[in-house]
Amino acid sequence: MTILARALTCPSCGSPLQLRDGDIAGTCESCGSSVRIRDGIGRLVLPSRIDGTEALRAVRHVLQSRDTKAGAASSARVHKPALYFVPFWHVSAQVSGFALGVMPLWKDEEVPVATTGESQETWSVMNQTRTVRTRSGWRAAKKEVHFLAGVNISGADLEALGIPSLSDRTQLAVTGMEIQRNGLPEGVEVLDLENLGEGILVDPSVPLSGALAQAESVFDRLAEGASRDLEQKWSSTVTVGRRASLVHYPLWVIAFESDNRLFKAVVDGRTGSILSGRFPGRGRDRHVIAAALGFLWAGFAPFLVHWLTFLSGSSRGLQAHCPLAMLAIVAVSATATVKLLEVLDGIERKGSDHVI
Amino acid sequence: MSSDGLILLRCANCGRGLSGLPDDVLYLCPRCSTVWQLGSEGLRPVALETASAPPRAGTVHLPFWLVDAEVEILRCIYRSPESSTHLQGPREFDPLLPGLREGEPSRSRHSLLIPAFGVDRALSLARRVTGLSVAFSWTQDCPAVLEGGCIDLEDALRVAPGVVLASQVDGPGNLAFASISVSPLYSRVAAIPFIASEAGFSVAGTSLVLPYTEMADARAIADRAGRN
């Protein structure tokens, strides 16, 4: 795409063109001619507002929280934070059209409410009324469908980082990120690799054609939604003036080791908040509790069985080693063991990592 | 002129450099009054007509596509204004529904004015400006600035049936369905004079006001026009 722009020369005077990597147009500094890159796609970037140290601080803050393992903050071996600029396609367009149909008309009526009398056995009509809405007809209606809309589509699959994708199917809010399903956040700049500083620019895996098709689907849905209250609907809408640009969004990925396990956290480069991550939970402590309880039961069970056998043998109505009594003891022991295992399993499950 | 994937924005008639907003596809050469449309293949000349207006401070020319076209209304169906039926009809339109009236097909020649700039209510604006156009007198004068033209002719022609539909919708009867065909005969860019006011761009002597909030590049257009 526009990466080639740096090697381009002015078609008018032949001087090298000083274009930024994201520019699709510019002016020759030598002769003043304006140029446009043929079928160029603008590349924009949201610079990171935080540096690696601040990203680490955000992770350390979580490591020191009550949900993570005690002492994890001091024992964790943190790798160097890596800054990635992940791609989003921004597609804007003008949608216009008409939807024709009918709007239902409703009639509100006050109707007396039948309630039970004091005797609870007879029904009587009291003075209370209830508003009942009934359909009384329809009137012809028309709606102009119009909007200048922008939609953002994930240019790469971020699910692996625990970040939901923005697509035509999932247009949910992305918690903690400045970029959302529509519009561009403040502070967008034209991509200039020379001035960008550190960071790895992630190329989109979703092609432009795919992003445009997804955006079209979102626009269609928006247009459809604008007239959803019409019945017997016929609509005609057209989407024009499509513009697409690639926006790179900063994410810090921080890996760290704790208890010989590798953990990863993603910090938003704009807001500084943890978007996703796995941290050592208090589960290790719970593993110890579960193991201790298991050992206790294993040691205590033979004594319990012996005691129950003794009790059954000393009872007047029962003979020692009575098969029924033995069966009952085995059943009680087995049930208790199963219950304890369930409890231990619950403790183990709760003891997994702290996930954001 | 183009080379190496670059398109030189220069008027091929007189050699003057062309300028515009980042998303513009229409460029006016103020020296020779030629409008150029930017496409994948480069710049292509388009004829220009300007609606005359008495000189007035704050005048801004906005670009429209003026399309002379053969408009054919192939089928139109009308419904009664209201009904007292308690029954709920189908969600989507069905031409076999009772109470519908078929209109007469028609064919006529129209001159449609379609906004070439990004605007929210494009069809309403097009219908109103098209309605006003009979009062315009067209000249070959060149406006000082004509910027914000980001809708190319191909897109404008896709909007054209909607403009005809807008006039049908606002006409007598309650339109329920229409099938419209627009065959363009001659297209050119029209510069329509608007007055920049506090509320928006307005057409002098009419109640038509185009709020700035409904335009994609209102601020940039007003700024550029103010500088000239």
Helix/strand layout:
The complex is a heterodimer of chains A (356) and B (228).
Chain A: E1 25-27, E2 34-37, E3 42-45, H1 52-63, H2 72-75, E4 77-78, E5 82-116, E6 123-154, E7 189-190, H3 193-196, E8 200-201, H4 208-225, E9 231-258, E10 261-268, E11 274-279, H5 283-314, H6 323-350, E12 354-355
Helix pairs in contact in A: 5-6
Chain B: E1 2-3, E2 6-9, E3 26-29, E4 34-39, E5 42-46, E6 48-51, E7 59-79, E8 82-83, E9 101-102, E10 106-115, H1 122-132, E11 138-139, H2 153-169, E12 174-196, E13 200-202, E14 209-211, H3 218-227
Parallel strand pairs in B: 6-12
Antiparallel strand pairs in B: 1-2, 3-4, 4-5, 6-11, 7-9, 7-10, 7-12, 12-13, 13-14
Tell me what you see in this structure.
- The complex is a heterodimer of chains A (356) and B (228).
- Chain A is of the alpha+beta class.
- In chain A, the strands form two sheets. In chain A, strands 3, 4, 5, 6, 7, 8, 9, 10, 11 and 12 form a ten-stranded mixed β-sheet that branches. In chain A, strands 1-2 form a two-stranded antiparallel ribbon.
- Helices cover 28% and strands 36% of the residues of chain A.
- Chain B is elongated.
- In chain B, the strands form three sheets. In chain B, strands 6, 7, 9, 10, 11, 12, 13 and 14 form an eight-stranded mixed β-sheet that branches.
- Chain B is α+β, with helices and mostly antiparallel strands and 228 residues long.
- Helices cover 17% and strands 40% of the residues of chain B.
- Chain B has three helices and 14 strands.
- In chain B, strand 13 and strand 14 form a beta hairpin.
- The two termini of chain B are 27 Å apart.
- The mean pLDDT of chain B is 90.
- At the A-B interface, strand 2, strand 5, strand 6 and strand 9 of A face strand 1, strand 2, strand 8, helix 1 and helix 2 of B.
How would you describe this structure in keywords?
heterodimer, A: 356 residues, alpha+beta, ten-stranded mixed beta sheet, two-stranded antiparallel ribbon, 6 helices, 28% helix, 36% strand, flat, disordered N terminus, B: 228 residues, eight-stranded mixed beta sheet, three-stranded antiparallel beta sheet, elongated
